[in-house]
Design goal:
Blueprint lengths: L1 H6 L10 H25 L5 H7 L1 E4 L2 E4 L13 H21 L2 H12 L3 H17 L1 H11 L2 H21 L3 H31 L4 H29 L2 H16 L25 E6 L2 E8 L3 H5 L2 H22 L1 H7 L4 H26 L4 H21 L7 H16 L3 H10 L4 H11 L1 H18 L3 H19 L7 E2 H8 L7
Antiparallel strand pairs: 1-2, 3-4, 4-5
Helix pairs in contact: 2-3, 4-9, 4-10, 4-11, 5-6, 5-10, 6-9, 6-19, 6-20, 7-9, 7-19, 8-9, 8-11, 9-10, 9-19, 10-11, 10-15, 10-18, 13-20, 13-21, 14-15, 15-17, 16-17, 16-18, 16-21, 20-21
Length: 505
């Protein structure tokens, strides 16, 4: 009862004197907002009205709103970081086995099935392009039904595909059907779209660090798992390696989906653990106001120059790198490197990539992302020049080491493209906008690796494929340097567009 009288403004028992009245209002100002916030959290959510009420300051008979609060003030770990941990664990295995690990399967499958380098590259490059081809549909499905609705079925489909591949692939046709129709499709749906879109929902201010942590751990998967799978292939067979991959998907990846949540709002939180939405200080008619941010729609993003420059830069970057990475072990072999040493060097690229992504993710929340992208793509172009002139059997092996370092640094910045997309255009349509970008350059993911394979089949080396890669990486660097962040939109602008007659004159 005493607490009720303290919090209920209508009672006057505690107002026997001016001092007691001041004390009552002071206690109300401290306790009433805290009680509202605690009650809201206990019942699973912070609605806008409760959140606003929880941040009122009562000064005698006047009430004013504070600036938005950007941290909870508690020691409890924000659930978004648990999401980063779960997504990173899944990406560790998926990257080491599929996205990075496919490099060790290229020569093994080629030799076992008696295929040419161009035939082998065609299947593996179509697999990489598949994620782009399905991008618009997958992005729409994620925005409509949530990330988890695609994550779990994708993992199960990929696992079944690995088991089928290990036991039933004995021809080029079955190789293409199983790898593209099950393994690649499942991995693309689950990991190329759902994971990144999921983390983008959980962060605003720390978006670059969160997404780059995910990407860094995925590179660590390449560092650790690629040499291990190479040893399994050399000492047992590539079929045992692929069968083990299917088991890893079910045992090591699938359980982490139990921790996955689509949006922080689903469990009563806001991005970054904030307790109020971000506001923009805007001025009109001689005054300034704090207006709530809103995300871009797909149509609005299409009207900005930055979106098209990001699309062009991402496409040129993929054209430059995918043709090299698909054939990286055969390329290194053509430079005099043994197969196991080539696998170890490839793992070293992914290890440097791990460190690069962590550092660049931290810097991406502090520095302009376009500048980071431009600088790192320039380094990657220099790395391709070193690969072109390098050789393992003489003093030029130093150039191959430089390539490993620069490629690890340069490829690590690719993830900043998606962090920039989320920063520029928000959370609501991120998956759709990302899917459209991946779809736009999906054809290049097929053309460049096939061209590299054709060059090897006809000339015995990959030099003809390295020359355009250098130019493409340089062009991508220029595109990213020219990207300018679009203006942030507000909720008031959306209301003005819906009801223009309500705009102040």
């Amino acid at each position: 009862m005493p607490l009720f009288f303290l919090l209920y403004p209508g009672r006057t028992r505690l107002a026997a004197s001016p001092v007691s009245a001041w004390r009552r209002k002071s206690l109300q100002a401290r306790i009433f907002p805290a009680m509202l916030e605690t009650t809201a959290r206990r019942f699973g959510g912070l609605s806008n009205s409760i959140t606003d009420a929880a941040h009122l300051h009562i000064h005698h008979d006047s009430i004013t709103m504070t600036s938005p609060v950007t941290n909870t003030g508690t020691s409890k770990i924000f659930y978004g970081w648990w999401m980063v941990m779960a997504c990173s664990a899944m990406a560790f295995f998926a990257s080491g086995i599929f996205f990075r690990g496919f490099t060790v399967f290229v020569p093994a499958v080629r030799d076992a099935l008696g295929l040419s380098q161009a035939q082998t590259n065609l299947v593996f490059s179509v697999a990489r392009a598949e994620g782009g081809l399905e991008g618009p549909v997958a992005g729409w499905a994620i925005d409509r039904f949530g990330n988890r609705a695609l994550l779990v079925p994708g993992i199960i489909l990929a696992a079944i595909g690995y088991f089928v591949f290990a036991g039933f692939v004995h021809s080029y046709l079955t190789f293409a059907l199983v790898y593209l129709g099950m393994i690649s499709l499942g991995n693309s749906i689950a990991f190329q779209h759902a994971l990144f879109a999921g983390l983008n929902q959980w962060f605003r201010r720390r978006r670059s660090l969160a997404i780059s942590t995910l990407a860094a751990v995925s590179s660590l998967g390449g560092l650790i798992l690629v040499p291990i799978m190479s040893l399994i292939i050399l000492n047992l067979s590539w079929r045992w390696a692929i069968f083990g991959a299917g088991g890893a998907y079910l045992v090591a990846i699938l359980p982490f989906t139990l921790m996955f949540r689509n949006r922080p709002e689903d469990i009563g939180l806001l991005p970054d653990g904030d307790v109020s939405p971000p506001l923009i200080t805007a001025g009109r008619s001689g005054g300034t106001r704090n207006l709530e941010e809103r995300d871009y729609t797909v149509k609005e993003a299409f009207r900005t120059r930055a979106y098209w420059m990001l699309m062009l830069g991402a496409g040129l970057r993929q054209m430059a790198t995918i043709g090299i990475l698909v054939s990286i072990i055969p390329i290194l072999e053509s430079k005099g490197v043994s197969r196991q040493t080539a696998a170890n060097l490839t793992g070293a690229i992914f290890g440097i990539n791990f460190l690069s992504r962590l550092v660049l993710g931290y810097l991406g929340d502090k520095w302009p992302k376009s500048g980071i992208l431009g600088a790192t793509l320039a380094l990657e172009a220099i790395g391709f020049i070193c690969l072109f002139f390098g050789s393992w059997n003489d003093g030029r092996f130093v150039l191959l080491i430089i390539f490993v370092v620069l490629e690890g640094l340069g490829d690590g910045a690719g993830i900043i493209v998606w962090a920039a997309l989320g920063e520029y255009y928000g959370r609501n349509k991120f998956a759709s906008l990302r899917g459209i970008i991946t779809f736009s350059h999906s054809w290049a993911l097929v053309a460049t690796p096939v061209f590299a394979g054709w060059a090897f089949d006809h000339y015995g080396n990959f030099d003809l494929a390295l020359i355009p890669a250098i130019g493409l990486a340089g062009a991508a660097s220029l595109c990213f340097f020219l990207v300018k962040k679009p203006p942030q939109l507000t909720q008031e602008e959306a209301a003005d567009q819906r009801c223009p007659w309500l705009k102040p004159r």
